[in-house]
Amino acid sequence: MRKVLAVGIGLAWATAGQAQSGAATAPPQPLQPQESAASSVPLPRVTVTGRRPIDVGPMPGLMVTRDQIPANVQTATGQQIRASRALNLGDYMNQELQGVSVNDYQGNPFQLDVNYRGFTASPQVGTPQGLSVFFDGIRVNEPFGDVVNWDLIPTNAIERFDLFPGSNPLFGLNTLGGAISVRSKTGFSAPGLQGQLTAGAWGRRQLQLSGGANDGTLGGFFALTRFQEDGWRDDSPSRVNQLFGRGDWRGEAASAYASVLYADNRLVGNGLIPIDLYRQRAESVFTSPDEARNRVLQFSVGGQFDLSERANITAMAYHRDSRRRGLNGDIYAGFDDFGDRDISPDGVARNGATRGGGFTGPGVVEGTPIGLLTRTDLEQRSNGLSLQFNWNEERNAMMLGASLDRSRTRYDMFQRLGLIDAAHRVFAAPDQIDPDYYAAEFDVPGNNFDGTSTTRSLFFQDTFTPVPQVTLTAAARYNHTKVDNTLLTRSSAGQVPLHELREFRAPEYTDGQVFRRTRTQESFTYRSFNPSLGINWRPVQDLNLFGNLSRGARAPSVVELGCAFDPTPVERVPGTPSLGTAPRSLTGPGCSLPTALSADPYLPQIRATSGELGLRQRLTTDWDWNVSVFRTDLRNDIYFVGVGDGRSYFDTIGKTRRQGLELGLNGRMGPLDLRVNYSFTDATFQSRFYTLSPHNSTADFNQNSAYVGDTQVIGQDVLPTPNASLNRGYGTYRMIRIDPGARMPGIPAHALNLHVGWRVAPGWKLGLGMVARSMAYMRGNENNLHQGAGTDQEIGRYYCSQAGGCDFSGFSQLPVRTGRSFRNAGKVPGYAVFNFDASVEVSRGFTAFVQVTNLFDRKYFTAGRLGVNPFTPGTNGSNGPSGWNYNSSEWQNTSLVAPGAPRGVFVGFSWDLGTPAADR
Q: Span of the secretion signal (predicted)?
């Protein structure tokens, strides 16, 4: 990285020297009499308004103005992003734009879930994705799960970005709720040298450096970012290194460019924390490490050829190579199911709550695995090209294009049982764990994956203005997607958790469970035709009414297909048909994202239908406002649900809906600037379905409600409840029912952003911003019914082992542990956070600034989920060095929360050399 930094500074120095040299060699201009200081007089500020063209798709070339786009498009320039001092694009959108909120499930500022109109772009595999993101026409949603890694987009390389709402078909697959189109700077658009140094709280150090230059024909630009931070929570350092370079050539009738993007980042986000631990010490973590190493190398070439003054061809080709390595330390939740075989040499149960007969004892500390280490390696390579014809007539702007995108993904996962120390770090310790636990000594492979995805698309748009007051827009896209998967799944006789892989068994038996794996190959094809229609009406000058209807589609991602529920009946124990059959997904390893995959059946693609009505108006040269209402309905939506015996998979859940309102006001009064953005988002499930949620107070805790074919006593009769026939016959044990109208977790209904700026004097600015969000439901509370009351006391399974069957009195009942109480509500309360900034231009182009985030040190949470806390004291439980209670009946049901950062003070210095003053 030092070499990269040296090269970047050298390029910056050369750029600055070129700019100074150009200034020195320019011929001197004679001073006109009217330009002399003695004759100059102050003039009032004059604002010239115009229509700025916007590229309406991933590719440039078709130029329409904002008042010709029938949607509430939101735009930000690179200078606005720089002035906000946002760490990344998601951070900026959360502070400034309408309809946006964030969830910090991962506990790292570069790994935010960004929600827009109830749809999400997240770096976390398993999160339902509904937004597409493009960088210079390259789709940066990764093939494995359509995730978006915000840390791989350098903010100081952004010329502008546009947020397009709705199911705009021009942006292709995964554009269910919106699309973000980012354009990079060039040596023509960003000449000069810019830089910024920032330091402050939590050991944060950041250098941003960029420079551009051109001679009228050739232009070059580079951007370098180096970020380091220790993090405000324990064991949470992060490092971000980004480098972007671009070269451009411009001729009389053609232009071309080539660019390269490289990033190598190490992000540590230690995730959610039980609210009880947070109240004791906010900086503590639940478990660590939780590390992601992201790397990307991306190349692109493109250009434009003008066929005439009004017609052109644009083309682009790219190669993107990304890799993500993860190391996650978690509690071993399977400890709760330790049974009779998990005992010490003297016969004491390792889990004092689960010994046969219902005995409740202290549990054994020594040699007991309690932690889980998961290593993942994800490699993704994408290639693509696009070609687009554009006609920009006076009344008619039309495009016709085609694209081809192909990706290949390889995913490997290994797990090992471990221990947890006093700082809640999970570590491997085969010499300290009972040697009977195979998974404590050896890495156990999971369900690994290799797959390709190929998408071919044709698209067009026509923007027609029959009269100056009316613009009609029609667009459509045809997609053809083929997904080819190869899965390597661990085979086993029944469901074997890691602690059931035991050394005392015959080697061939253990080897069969661990190393004998089944290869599954499959291929799926998806086709979709997605149209849109829109209208803009301008009854008077500067007043614009608009509306649109559109359809979009998302083909299931490779991870959703790889982790879909497969109901195909197979023998519970291969070779023993007398023990019955069960769905294929219930006879092998489950799906615990992002660490496992299973055999995958077909899932239908998601279909979106969107509508929007709105109005925008420029009241004066200084004031404008907008209002819009929207609604998007999805069919065949996909969610991570439970289907039986604690197993979770992706499955189709039917219909969902997002609808709401957006309102914005922007203007200035003398030295004051004002921005107000409000949004209401109602994101709801519209079909009934069940999902696993054992820490929800309304879950079904009757073991007799489980899938009948999944009896805990193989080959024996059971006594099911009527609920065992629900959920498509897979039972409702430990599940909740979600009914139409239930609100989706993590999406606040109300969001308000407010910013007031004061130009105290020339070159001196003060600013105060507010980010306010209303209550949101936690994950695990999808039915919105969880209460902080009652317990999770279970009813033991009734079974019969008598030949010929039993009447009701002849059934026996399995023992159960003591129930654990519910004490917290399943909601994240609303909050309002204020941020302050001040800057002063110490000399032309050089500015000093101070930034205070969370000015009033507000304690707040951006998200949460229902869970359990094993680090609890107890009357019967033994506690180890980590605080782990070895009696799981004394664990506490809790709310795990994503805490916001406390007050942070940062100071810095920025420079802007060679950029025209009007652009600063």
A: 1-19
The identity of residue 436, as a single letter, is: D
Strands 735-738 and 717-718: unpaired
Dist. CA 84–CA 851, nearest whole Å: 10
What structural domains and CATH numbers belong to the chain?
A: 55-62+66-699+734-788+823-919 (2.40.170.20)
Which token pair is 683?
């994101």
Per-residue pLDDT, 835: 97
Q: Which pLDDT value is given to residue 574?
A: 55
- Which residues have C-beta within 8 Å of that of residue 333, sequence separation ≥ 6? 372, 868
Query: 10 Å Cβ neighbour count for 213?
Result: 23
Cα separation, 770 vs 96, whole angstroms: 10
Here the tokens at position 410 are: 């390889």
Who contacts 782 (Cβ-Cβ below 8 Å, separation ≥6)? 685, 691, 693, 736, 738, 742, 744, 745
Cβ 748 vs Cβ 679: under 8 Å? no
What are the tokens at 546? 């608009």
Contacts of 500 (CB under 8 A, 6+ apart): none
| pLDDT given for residue 160 in this prediction | 94
Residues listed for the chain: 920
C-alpha to C-alpha distances, 676 to 72, 758, 774, nearest whole angstrom: 15, 15, 16
Considering only CA atoms, give the Rg of the chain.
30
**Residue 337, pLDDT score:** 83
Starting at the earlier edge strand, list the strands of the sheet with 119-121: 100-103, 113-116, 119-121
User: Which amino acid makes up residue 541?
Assistant: Q
> Any idea what the Cα angle at residue 535 is, between residues 530 and 541, rounded to 5°?
150
**What are the phi and psi torsion angles at 516 (to 5°)?**
-80, 110
Phi, psi of 505 (to 5 degrees): -80, 165
Residue 524, pLDDT score: 85
Decide: residue 110, CB within 10 A, 0-12 exposed, 13-18 middle, 19+ buried. buried
3-state secondary structure of 280: helix
Alpha-carbon distance of 271 to 897, in angstroms, equals 9
Strand segments, DSSP code E, in 201-253 are 204-214, 218-229, 238-250
3-state secondary structure of 709: helix
Residue type (1 letter), 256: A
- Cα dihedral: 640, 642, 643, 648 (round 10): 70
Instruction: Report how far residue 98's alpha carbon sits from residue 606's, in angstroms, rounded to the nearest whole number.
Output: 25
Q: What is the pLDDT of residue 353?
A: 84
Please tell me the predicted confidence (pLDDT) of residue 3.
Answer: 42
- DSSP class of 808: G
119: nearest Cα among 175, 74, 169? 175
The amino acid sitting at 2 is R
pLDDT of residue 604: 84
* Cα–Cα dist 914/920, whole Å: 10
- H or E, element range at 608: strand 606-618
Neighbours of 537 (CB within 10 A): 14
Rounded-to-integer distance, Cα 148 and Cα 180, Å: 11
Q: Report helix, strand or coil for 705.
A: helix
Task: Of 714, 733, 643, give the one whose Cα is nearest residue 493.
Answer: 714
Angle at 97 between CA 470 and CA 614, to 5 degrees: 25
Q: Rounded to whole angstroms, how far apart are CA atoms 828 and 816?
A: 32
d(CA 255, CA 15): 22
Residue 918 φ/ψ, nearest 5 degrees? -65, -25
The pair of three-digit structure tokens given for residue 88, joined into one six-digit string? 């990344």
For residue 177, give the DSSP letter: S
Counting Cβ atoms within 10 Å, is residue 438 exposed (0-12), middle (13-18) or buried (19+)? Answer: buried
Residue with tokens 């280490």: 373
Q: Give pLDDT < 70 ranges for the chain.
A: 1-53, 340, 355-359, 447, 488-495, 504-520, 558-559, 562-602, 642-648, 709-716, 801-805, 807-809, 915-920
